[in-house]
Amino acid sequence: MARYRMLISYDGTDFCGWQRQGEHKNSPKLPSIQETLEKAVGQILNHPLDISASGRTDAGVHAVGQVIHFETERKIPQDLCWALRSKLPPSISPKALWLAPDEFHATLSAVNKTYRYWIYNQPRASALFHRYSWWIRTPLDLSRMNRSAEQLLGTQDFASFRNVGTPTKTTIRRIDRAVWTETKPGILKFEVTGSGFMKQMVRNLVGTMTELEIRGKNPEKMSEIIALKDRSEAGPAAPAQGLFLMKVRYPKALDNKCRQL
After folding, report:
1. Is the pTM of this model over 0.90?
2. Could you tell me the CA-to-CA distances from 178 to 9, 78, 80, 138, 202 in Å, in that order?
3. Which of 247, 252, 261, 242 is nearest to 11 (CA)?
4. What is the topology classification, in CATH, of domain 2-109?
5. Which end of the chain is more exposed for a tag (fewer CB within 10 A), N or C?
6. Which residue in the list 11, 58, 79, 157 is annotated as catalytic?
7. One digit per residue, pLDDT tens: the chain, 261 residues?
8. CATH number listed for the domain at residues 112-246
């Protein structure tokens, strides 16, 4: 049994999220990315299989650098990424494949992740960017929003940004970088790197920082919201379509044991 590591990207618009969903009366009508990939790889290898990812992106969230792994005893085609193109919708793209050691695990081995969120900050909406950004008409001051972002750095209890009813072993997370920039006039980018993120945590952070700015609140209030450890004190979640999983990092020693095919 060999273990394989794969880098994929996807447009999450037409999916119910990463995680495979069970069949029940409230099952989502849209497919999951996980089941779509499992079906495609399974067809090529001619056997069912389970695929694990670095994390479960929500419905409508995109990925540039999602990492997955799976195991099989079958011989892998010479270029599996190319072979999968005929089995997958164009919104899912396999980018690279490695033979990985047994100790590699897409979820458990990850050291940190980088997410990016886009805001289209113009008086009029964009027909071209609406699937990949959050349109906000009110002008946003990035210097003030960066003051809010600075409050996120370090190891802290982010219970205020955990979705109600979402179980998790701990709400303590480490954030190493959190920065707002304007890449072009009216095109705002928030990039955050951390040890891990709870369900919708990045969207909750973006929604809270944006709400503080729009309401003219002191950016330092973010520290107060964190200290309260109360989800009701934070702002609403930003829309899913502006969020991208950009990169997942693993220990260098483990990367070196992965052989690209």
Report:
1. yes
2. 23, 40, 36, 22, 11
3. 242
4. Alpha-Beta Plaits (3.30.70)
5. N
6. 58
7. 999 999 999 999 999 999 987 665 556 789 999 999 999 999 999 999 999 999 999 999 999 999 999 999 999 998 999 999 999 999 999 999 999 999 999 999 999 999 999 999 999 999 999 999 999 999 999 999 999 999 999 999 999 999 877 778 899 999 999 999 999 999 999 999 999 999 999 999 999 999 999 999 999 999 999 999 999 999 999 999 999 999 999 999 999 999 999
8. 3.30.70.660
